[in-house]
Design brief:
Helices cover about 5% and strands about 40% of the residues. By secondary structure, the protein is mainly beta.
Length: about 170
């Protein structure tokens, strides 16, 4: 059993009701947190390399997707973030060529972060996060798709991306 704690700092847009989800609204930057029990498959322990090829300019926009796992099953492999540019349109994978590796069993609480930097201001995007297993199957870690509008990238976020890359995992406090 994995419990995902999802934090959306993209601007808490439209939400579809999920009877099994618990939502607590926080301050605007803290967004909303959703705790969801999810059954998943597998994971390997690997690190995400930082990217030194990112170029920053003024006015860079982002959607920041964060989730937390309490535990992960042995077969969990990686997380893939999906996005749609419009309601009722299919979601496409954003990081299929560079999935975010899962920590694996016994790693304890883990926090995952994905920065979507290919966004336009004032446009609403719809997201889903799926965990893949070593047999190729995948399961959504969200009880429902979440949407939000981009926010400006802060200097602290730019440093975080420079240090860790646009997608990373760290131990939860």
């Amino acid at each position: 059993m994995m419990v995902a704690l999802i934090a959306w700092t993209a601007g808490c847009g439209r939400r579809e009701a999920a009877p099994s989800a618990t939502t607590t609204a926080g301050a605007p930057e803290r967004a909303a947190f959703t705790t969801v029990p999810v059954s998943v498959a597998a994971a390997t322990d690997a690190s995400v390399a930082s990217s030194d090829t990112l170029v920053w300019g003024t006015g860079q926009w982002r959607n920041k997707i964060r989730w937390e796992t309490v535990s992960e099953k042995p077969r969990a492999k990686a997380f893939i973030v999906y996005r749609s540019d419009a309601p009722m349109m299919p979601l496409g994978p954003l990081n299929a060529n560079n999935p975010l590796p899962a920590a694996g069993p016994g790693a304890g609480r883990q926090q995952y972060t994905y920065y979507d930097l290919d966004v336009k201001p004032e446009h609403t995007y719809i997201y889903d996060v799926r965990i893949t297993s070593d047999d190729g199957s995948s399961t959504s870690v969200l009880p429902y798709q979440v949407s939000g509008k981009p926010k400006p990238l802060t200097e602290a976020e730019q440093r975080e991306i420079q240090d860790k890359g646009p997608a990373f995992r760290q131990s939860a406090p």
